[in-house]
Amino acid sequence: MAVSRIADLSKLVITSQIGTDSQGQPILKSKTYNGVKAAALDQDVYDVAQSLGSLQKNPVYRVERIDREEIIQA
């Protein structure tokens, strides 16, 4: 039986480095933005993340995109 995927919403997660611990490891804090359109291009999502990151006092450590898809019977 064939199945297919239908793109749903995506999330943007921006992780910032807010400091370092006593052993020099980064201390990280993440902020999640819901409602990113599944059709949005990765470059556009990254550019938005960098723009939002520039408004923060802490540097952006990592940018993640989490896509949610529904699997249905075709």
UniProtKB/TrEMBL annotation:
Domain DUF1659: 3-73
Protein name (record): Uncharacterized protein DUF1659
